[in-house]
Amino acid sequence: MKLKLLLILSVLAFAVYANLPPGLTNKYFRFPRDLSLRMGLDLQGGVHLVYQADTSKLADADKASAVESTKANIERRINSLGVSEPLIQIAKSGTDSRIIVELAGISDINQAISLIGQTAQLEFRESKVATPSAQTDFKTTNLSGADLQRATVQFQNGKSSVGLQFSTDGAKKFAEITKRNVGRPLAIFLDDQMIMNPPLVSNAITDGQAVITGNFTVEEAKRLVINLNAGALPLPIKIIEQRNVGATLGAESIQKSLFAGAVGLVVVCLFMIANYGLKGVLADLALGLYVLITLTLVRLVPITLTLAGIAGVILSIGMAVDANILIFERIKEEIAWGRPKKAAVELGFHRAWNSIKDSNMSSLITAGILFWFGTGSVRGFALTLALGIAVSLFSAITVTKTLLDLFYNRSK
Amino acid sequence: MKLLKYKFIYFAISLIILIPGTISLVKNGLKLSIDFTGGTLLEITSAKIDKAELEKYATLVQKSSDNTYVLRTHEMDNSQKEKLLAELKSKYDDVVETRFETVGPVVGKELTQKAFMAMGVASLMIIAYIAWSFRHVPKPYSSWKFGVSAVVALLHDALVVVGIFSIFGAVWHVEIDSLFVTAVLTVIGFSVHDTIVVFDRVRENLPKMPKNTFEEVVDFSLSETLVRSLNTSLTAILTLVVLLLFGGESIRWFVAALLIGIVSGTYSSIFNAAPILSIWESRSLAR
After folding, report:
1. A127 in B contact zone (CB under 8 Å)
2. Strand A237-245 and strand A186-190: pairing?
3. Which pLDDT score, from 0 to 100, does residue B124 have?
4. Same domain for B156 and B184
5. Per-residue pLDDT averaged across A201-229, rounded?
6. Domain limits at A99?
7. Are residues A257 and A389 in the same domain?
8. Residue A404: its pLDDT value, please?
9. Is the dihedral of CA A28, A31, A34, A39 positive or negative?
10. What is the CATH classification number for the domain harbouring A213?
């Protein structure tokens, strides 16, 4: 009993700490991780993209690692955009491999899409004829973007250009190619497009350095450098789902949901007091703790909050007292059957447990299926549902029981 | 209380609710969103644009609020959308894109399959769980019948919600999306709550009342647990009503689906699941 009370008080203390504004609490103790609530796309605007990765040309054994490195590559490209907390995950659907990208609070969606989708396949091609006149006059060499060590933005004569530094291996290949092409043009292709007039090779270059002097603006040069450094995407990808969400609705929706949550909480509390009197007050205290713990867990896990998720949390306030109702009704019955009050309380908790356990199990089953069924916001909803069930068992049973015991022992 | 005396009236009430929805379902089907069908949804605002003009570009144009139009088209990718927007902007300079969603046909087909799978798997697992949890009901009663009766009631609730939303679709163009499926699955989970409270009491009373018929035991258990069944549902219903009133536009239909489902779930637990169990178990006893 003392132990339980101690447990409840420490949970309460932590929950209060986690939900206070960090500016207030950081002075005394800073939690090792950021505990601020994560807002989903529908609350802060942004874009949700699903890419299909084409693995049809790969052997089965290589598919997983190719998708994995495509994801890593997309991650690098997105990081260069400076989006905070992007969500990038791989989703399997049958034999298909998909990469889900969620960028919240992003301003230029088109730029992000073109940056992610660029294949950035850099190639050096040598001429098949002495004086090439078309792109088709060039043939591929063994030197490509994969041989790059680093690309940098450079400025020459007030123009931006891209400097290339090859790896040791690449430098050797580059030396060989330049040696056999002295006096002839060498073309640079990006994604099958020639990006500048092919310069003539004056002599063999052995230090592994080259400069691309296209007609770049500073912005273009920067983006090319980002792409070259990130490397080519190992797999071709295609958007199969895209959802742009405006941010305007978000702030308003949060306000409304918070208000609805507060009203809902008050209504449920009044309902419990009206029906169960003093026991209802104790259940309301437990419910208050329930809300605090749920919010804390949402911060800790962390669960990304969406509108549906918030609705789930509010609905769970109405569900969290279910166990209390079952127990209190049972206590009423036991008293009506002539048990002394103290024994009735014990029996009420004990005998209501069967139906509480079974009904919550059925909800956990559906929450599990929901988690499997959905992606993104549906998963968030399923998680809050499951969390709510677990926390409500603690608040409605352990907490209420301890409070009741405390109260009855006092009143004796 | 002799609640079960009127069991056929309860079934009749269920039918009265179910029949219009089912007719609408057969006649109109459901208004499926692009989540299921694949395709593109583009929402724009403009004070100057004319609806007839927009209809040239889209298969369906809806005016949602004052200057907001929702366009449904075949699947468009981002660059096609940008081209369309540029074209519109060249004619009407105040066009602003507010929402753009595009879903490939593969994704839509998968969602449909998954939704049915999820319903099926949830039903089977709940039957199995109840059958296992009630395995100690005294012979000759079968715990499987408890499980199946509970699931009949929850399928009733799912059908009520889907049927009513088919009517909503025909009248108000309400679309069925993946959130709707989420609502129906949630309803399924909580519909079983009340059913289990009643069944649990039947399980407890059976050994205590050996001289009574099964129907009498169910009747007695129902009247004992009626108040708590109603109270547990009421708290959920109260929060949902509050959400419906104050929660804002974007989740209104999601909340409505939950609310309809949970009201139906309360009714079906008391007035469908228990009577069905009673009829079924009594029949097999008589044989």
Report:
1. no
2. unpaired
3. 93
4. yes
5. 78
6. 46-117+237-245
7. yes
8. 87
9. negative
10. 3.30.1360.200
Q: Do B122 and B183 share a domain, yes or no?
A: yes
Amino acid at A348: G
Of A222, A257, A273, the position where a domain reaches its end is: A222
Same domain, A311 and A392: yes
Q: How far apart are CA B276 and CA B14, in angstroms?
A: 13
State the Cα–Cα distance between residues A4 and B98, nearest whole angstrom.
52
Same domain, B79 and B198: no
More confident residue, A85 or B264: B264
Residues B52 and B137 in one domain: no
Within a domain: residue A328? yes
Q: Domain for residue A231, yes or no?
A: no
Contact B179 A246 (CB under 8 A): no
Residues A28 and A76 placed together within one structural domain of the fold: no
Which residue in A244, A355, A372 is closest to B99 by CB distance? A244
Please indicate whether, in this complex, the C-beta atoms of A244 and B97 are within 8 angstroms of each other.
yes
Q: Please tell me the total count of domains within chain B.
A: 2
Please tell me the distance in Å from A257's CA to the nearest CA on chain B. Answer: 5
CA atoms within 13 Å, Cβ hemisphere of B183: 26
* B172 & B74 share domain: no
Query: Do A80 and A184 belong together in one domain?
Result: no
The pTM score is 0.83
Q: For residue B1, what pLDDT band results from cuts at 50, 70 and 90?
A: low
Q: How far is B75 from chain A (nearest CA, A)?
A: 9
Which region holds residue B173: left if phi is over 0, alpha if psi is between -120 and 50, else beta?
left
| pLDDT for position B24 | 95
For an interface test with B, give the residue of A359, A360, A381, A389 to mutate (most B CBs within 10 A). A359
**Residue B184 and residue B251 in one domain:** yes
pLDDT tens profile A239-269: 899 988 876 666 778 888 889 999 999 999 9
Give the whole-angstrom CA distance, residue A314 versus residue B248. 14
Residues of A whose CB is below 8 A from B189: 362-363, 365-367, 385
Give the SS3 label for residue B103.
strand
Of B104, B239, B251, the CB nearest to A240: B104
Closest CB to B78 among A113, A267, A272: A113
Is the confidence at residue B208, as pLDDT, over 70?
Answer: yes
Tell me how close the Cα of A399 comes to any Cα of chain B, in angstroms.
Answer: 19
Whether residue A160 is contained in a domain is answered as: yes
Domain match, A329 and A266 both: yes
CATH assignment at residue B83? 3.30.70
Instruction: Read off the pLDDT band of B203 (50, 70, 90).
Output: very high
Residues B89 and B148 in one domain: no
Please state which of the ranges A342-356, B49-63, B126-140 shows the lowest mean pLDDT: B49-63
Structural domain for B172, as ranges:
3-33+106-286
Indicate if the alpha-carbon torsion angle A198, A202, A208, A211 is positive or negative: negative
Q: Which residues of A fall within a CB distance of 8 Å from B182? A: 308, 370, 373-374, 378, 381-382
Judgement on whether residues A196 and A294 belong to the same structural domain of the protein: no
Distance CA A290, CA A280 (A): 15
B143, B257: one domain? yes
Average pLDDT over residues A68-91: 81
Whether residue A267 and residue B227 make contact (CB cut-off 8 A), yes or no, is no
The pLDDT tens digits of the residues spanning B254-269 come to 999 999 999 999 999 9
In a domain, A228, yes or no: no
What is the predicted ipTM?
Answer: 0.87
Identify which of A90, A19, A78, A23 has the alpha carbon closest to the alpha carbon of residue A53.
A90
pLDDT at A69: 81
Q: Is A266 on the interface with B (CB under 8 A)?
A: no
B76 and chain A: CB distance < 8 Å anywhere? no
Whether the bond into A302 is cis, omega within 30 of 0? yes
Q: How many CA atoms are closer than 13 Å to the CA of A162, on its beta-carbon side?
A: 27
pLDDT classification of B144: cutoffs 50, 70, 90: very high
Q: Which residues from chain A sit within 8 angstroms of residue B101, using beta carbons?
A: 242-244
* Tokens encoding B27: 């006649």
A68 touches B at CB < 8 Å: no
